[in-house]
Amino acid sequence: MTSLLSVRDLRVGFGKRPTIKEIVHGISFDVNAGETLAIVGESGSGKSVTALSVNRLIDYAGGHILSGSITLGTSKGDAVNIVKASERQLEKIRGAEIGMIFQEPMTSLNPVLPIGQQLEEAFRLYRGLSGSQAKNAAKDALDRVRIPDAHRRLRYYPHQLSGGMLQRVMISMALACNPRLLIADEPTTALDVSVQAQIMALLAELKREMGMGMIFITHDIGLVAGIADRVMVMQSGEAVEQGKLDQILDSPQHPYTQHLLSAVPHFSGGRSVRRDFARPEMKGAAPALAVSGLTVRFPITQGLLRRAAGAVHAVEGVDFDLMPGETLAIVGESGSGKSTTARAILGLVRPSSGHFDIHSQPGKSPHRPVQMVFQNPYASLNPRLNVESLLAEPVIASGGKLTQDTRARMKGLLDRVGLPTDSLTRYPHEFSGGQRQRLCIARALMVDPSVLVLDEAVSALDVSVQAKVLELLTDLQQDLKLAYLFVSHDMAVVERIAHRIAVVYAGQIVEIGEAASVLSDPKHSYTRRLIAAVPTIERRREHFALDTRSVPSLVKPPGYEPPMTPWETYGIDHRARAEN
Alpha-carbon distance 421 to 130, whole Å? Predict the structure, then answer.
C-alpha cells in the first residue's frame, strides 16, 4: 500500500498562549491508501482535535498547530504539507482530497435550506454536476444511506428529520466528493445498530472501490474490530499505544487500553441479562405503567387552505405494562417511534388515541410520578443555573418549596449518584459528560417518581463512563423500586440493563418478551436483523453486508388504517407479530 497521509510530531494548542494550553502532545502516525486507522479514546483525549488538525479546520476552532508536519499525497501525485499550505491550497484539498463526517449533524447543516439543496451544492462543487443530474445524484445519495421516501425528504429542512436521518444526510454529503482520505469523527454514535451497520457497510464498500484511506474516530471498540486495520489509542493528548488491530485487542500493553477494553459491553445473545426481577412473582400487583392502544399521528397539510394530505403514523396501537422495579427496553431504528412513545407517556406529545395509566407506588410522589432523563445532559441543564437551582426545579414545578429538608434531599441524592455534596454551588460546564448525566438522574429523582423514562440516556457517554452510569441505574432501581422505560438503539447496553424488551418497527411493537428469550431466540425477522448488526470485539474485519431493504414509509394517505397483524405466542412471556 502507498502512503497517503503522514503525521509527524504533531503538537496543537489553544487560546492566546497555545504553548501553555497544549492539547495534543507530539503525535505521529501514518495512513496508507485503502487502510483504516481507528483513533480510540474517551472524551477529552484529543482524538477530535487531531482529526481537525489533519485538514486545518482546527484553525477555525481556536486551535493552533505548534509544531510538526502533516503530509498528504494528493490525486495529482504530489505531496502537500498541510501545516504550511495556503488557504487557497486548503480550499482545493478540503472536500476533493479530504472528506469529513462530523459527529453532530445539526451544527453542520444549514437550518434554512432543504437538505436537497445542500446535497446538490456538494455535487456541484466536487463532481461538477448541475440541474437534473445534481438532483438525481442527491436522491441516489439518500437512497444509499437508507432514508425512506428520498424524493420527498429532499424537500425537508434539517429540523424535520430525526438525529439518525440527519447523520445519514451528512455522510452522503461527505461521500459526494469521492475523497482520497475520509475522516469520520464518531459518525455512528447516535445511530441504531442496524443503520450503524449499513453506514459501516457503505464506508467499507467505498474504501474497497476507491482505495480510499480512512481515519475512524470512535469510543466504540466493537466498531473498531469490524472495520479497522490499525488502532491508535489516545489518552490526555498522547498516543499511548499503536499497533495492528489484533495486537491491540488481544494483547493490549498499556493500562489505559486494558481499561477501555474491560469497560466495553459485550453482547452475548441473552446469556448476560439481569436475573434480579421475577415477573411471575408480581402477579396481581398493579403495574407502575400500563399502556393500551397508544397511537400517535401527525397530520400533513398542504395548500393555502391547509387541506389534509395524509398523516405520519409515528406510533400505532402500542400495548405494554411496566411493573415496579422492572426495566422495559424499547429498541428500534431511528424514526421507528420509540422516542415518540416515551414522549407521549410524558405528555410532551398528544396521543391520537389509546390511553395509559400511571400508578404511583406507596411512598412515591403522586404529583410527578414519571420523570425523564434525556440523551444530551448538557442540553438538558440550564447553563445559567447552579446545581442547587437545577435540583430545585422539579420540586418547585410540583408546587413545593426550597426548604432545609429539600436541601438535605439534594445532598443525599448527590451522594447517591456519586457526586460530591459541594457540587451545589457549581455550574453544568464544570462537570464532565458522565457527571452531568448523573446530575440529570439526581434531578429526576428529586420528586421521588415511580417511573423513570431514559431516552438514550447513556448513548453519548464514553464506554467506561457508560458502564458506571448503568451500574448506578441498577443500584438505584434495586434500592428505590423504580420502574425504568429504557429507550435505546444499543443492544449490548440493553442486554446489560433490561428485564424485558419491546422491539419497535415502523411505529408498531413487533416483538416483546423477557430479555433472555428475545435476545437468544428472536422470532421476528426485524429483531434478528437488529441482533445480527450488533458490533462485537469477536467479529474481526467482517465485511458488513449492505442491506438493500428499505424502511417502510410512515407517511400514509388520509383515512388509512393499518391492518391488525395477529400476535403469535412463544412461551409464557414472549410474543411476536405474525409475518407472511
Answer: 61
pLDDT of residue 380: 87
- Average pLDDT rounded to a whole number, residues 366-370: 73
Cβ neighbours of residue 429 under 8 Å, at least 6 residues apart?
Answer: 383
* Helix spans in 211-356 (H): 221-227, 245-250, 255-263, 338-346
- Three-class SS of 340-355: HHHHHHHCCCCCCEEE
Tell me the sheet residues that pair with 373: 454
Question: What are the C-alpha distances in Å from 357 to residues 6, 174, 293, 337?
Answer: 61, 46, 12, 20
Q: What is the mean pLDDT of residues 77-82?
A: 86
Phi, psi values for residue 452, rounded to 5°: -115, 120
At 203-250, the pLDDT tens digits run: 787 788 778 899 999 877 767 888 899 999 999 999 999 999 999 999
Nearest to 546 by CA among 197, 165, 101, 190: 197
Overall average pLDDT of the 540-559 stretch: 68
- DSSP-assigned letters across all residues of 88-107: HHHHHHBTTTEEEE-S-GGG
Cell of 375: 440523551
Check pLDDT > 80 for residue 300: yes
Environment class of 208 (CB within 10 Å of its CB; exposed 0-12, middle 13-18, buried 19+): exposed
Of the candidates 505, 453, 363, 38, the residue with the CA atom closest to the CA atom of residue 225: 38
Name the residue among 189, 173, 191, 192 with its Cα closest to residue 47.
189
Q: What one-letter code names the amino acid at 275?
A: R
Q: Decide if 314 contacts 479 (C-beta within 8 A).
A: no
**Cβ count within 10 A of residue 393:** 15
Q: Which helix (H) or strand (E) holds 175?
A: helix 163-175
Q: Bridge partners of 568?
A: 576
Q: What is the DSSP string of 497-564?
A: H-SEEEEEETTEEEEEEEHHHHHHS--SHHHHHHHHT---TTS-S-------PPPPP-EE-TT-----
State the greatest distance between any 2 C-alpha atoms of the chain, in Å, as a whole number.
76
The Cα 214–Cα 229 span in angstroms is: 10
**Would you mind telling me the total number of residues written for the chain in this entry?**
580
383-386-390 Cα angle (round to 5): 85
In terms of Cα–Cα distance, which of 459, 528, 525, 531 is closest to 495?
531
**C-alpha distances in Å from residue 23, one per residue of 10, 66, 256, 289:** 10, 10, 18, 48
CB-facing half-sphere around the CA of 552: CA atoms within 13 A:
13
Whole-structure pTM value? 0.80
Top pLDDT among 119 and 188 is at 119
**Residue 128 grid coordinates:** 461538477
